[in-house]
Design a protein that fits this description.
This protein has about 675 residues and is α+β, with helices and mostly antiparallel strands. The protein is about 50% helix and about 20% strand.
Amino acid sequence: MCPAPLNSCGQDVPQRVEQLHKQLLIQTAALDSTLHAIAITDISGHILWINSTFSKMSGYPVSEVIGQTFRLLKSGWQEQAFYMNLWETILAGKVWHGELTNRRKDGKLFSEELTITPIRGEAGDITNFVAVMHDISINKQREVEIDAVLTVANDLRTASDRAGIVPILLKQAMRLLDANGSAIAFLDTASKDMLIELGLGELRKWTGLRIPAGEGVTSQVFKTGLPVTISGASAYNQSIAKEPIPRTSYAACVPLVAQEHTVGALWISSESRIEEKSLTLLNAVTDIAANAVYRANLQVKTDQRLKRLAALRVIDEAISSSLDLSMTLGILLDQLLWQLDVDAADVLLLNPNKGTLEYAALRGFHSRDVSYGRFKVGEGIAGKVVETREVIQVPDLNQVEDQDSRIEQVKGEGFISYLAVPLIAKGEVKGVLDIYHRKKVLPDREWMNFLEALAKQAAIAIDNALLFENLQRSNLEVMNTYDITLEGWVRTLGLRDGDTGGHTQRVTDYTLKLAKAVGVADTEMENIRRGALLHDIGKMGIPDNVLRKSGPLTDEERSIIHMHPIYAYELLMPIPYLRTAIDIPYCHHEKWDGSGYPRGLKGEEIPLAARLFSVADVWDALRSDRPYRSSWSEEKAVLYLRKQSGCHFDPRVVEIFFQSGIL
């Protein structure tokens, strides 16, 4: 009988142990490599084993965990009832799953997703628990960020401009970070300083605080686009002392960045240390707020540009529709004060003949004395602008050392900043535009561009007005020359015709008075005056032996005399200047009943000017001495005109002649 074989357990124990050991090593390595933290406890919750991920998540090494309970990680964020429910579940042999907040060894909180599974022994009773933990802090942070962004975005929908956006952003920032104060700063484009637009809570006193360009944390954050945290305001205040943070506070300043442009800086103050995740949350909120501010700023700029374009159009219309320089410059200065937030402005006109600058228009000054005086070219700032043809800007008038009587005069108005712009049209300086502010102002490029556009329009308006003035002067000189020539003709004709009693002048005066009485427009009066003066100009073509005959005229001679209206027409019609005055010389011998000459016109076919003159001419002839008869009495002359009313004369004109008080 063969001997019984060795028991496999006895024969293979070393191999089995080695196999189990390798299997255990593989399982341990697998558990260590998982992204989840794993811990095994006994029935009372004391930790027997953890994987490496547990140490990484909690910050505790294995030696400090084994034998401890999970109270080691307790944060205090969960109430006792939470833990009672957890133990009731797992002691009942059920799997517990949930989320909780624990605290790492370094004191930082983290959120985790936890699953605890009971392990039963061979007898079926619970011997151990396996806890599997997953760090969900990042997910929770993102949820908080998304919720914050949605909340801020929803609130920002009610804000249409920066003034509405800012308080919403500051309140939300304080709520989300449980902060005790917040403030926001924007760049003052004129001075390049950072200006705190609004502060709330502990930072409410910051409102209106101006931080000089390049100084303080605010300027640093705005320039670099990087956040700054401050731990211990006391030390901070001693080293920088630009932003007065309360000495008991922690603080952070983060940039507002939109479209790769930093548009502002947000401050937060807190009684507790500001954690990294708080900054992350704050950045998430400021991102959406920055874009809202950026859009609001763009909208403001767009609206501003539209308003300025409209202003330029108003000025263009004023220039094109009126040659009243004072009115046009007044409109221009009104638009300048409104669009550019200017306190006062004036326009000085250059008198090239005298070499002086004189006030043409001004707005915004408290004293009227400013408008008096003349200033020589080359003297003072405005005088230098004429010479250099360049803009001169004075940020602080108190720093001006040169003697300038105008500057001394306006200092009493409380002005600080001053800017003088040459007004140039067609290559010639027409004057100077002066701009005054009662505060220090450093205008940006867009502001200057609009000012230069206004200056060009002012120069054009001045140039147009001067051209019109020169044209008017030239026209007046020509008109005076024409009138002198015309009066010379009248005197020549009077000498030839023997009119030494002033008949022509009297009948002209009567006709003008009568024209006014019947409502003739003022624009026609000059034509009537010239026509009346030249009423017998056609007699220049009548031979002396007929014109100066003292006795009765023959039929042939009368026919020759009747030609003088035609001669008048032929003489005056080719002259544009006198063409509009032709009605009286051509038609003053026409009669109401059609029996007149040269064309036999009837009633209202006869031009009104000729009908008016006809009455005045006959009246003066009857009331004047002639070589062949004495003057008629007033009663006899009145009776004659009334008898001829409706025959020789327009009845309405006759009545007005007697009723208007002309005589």
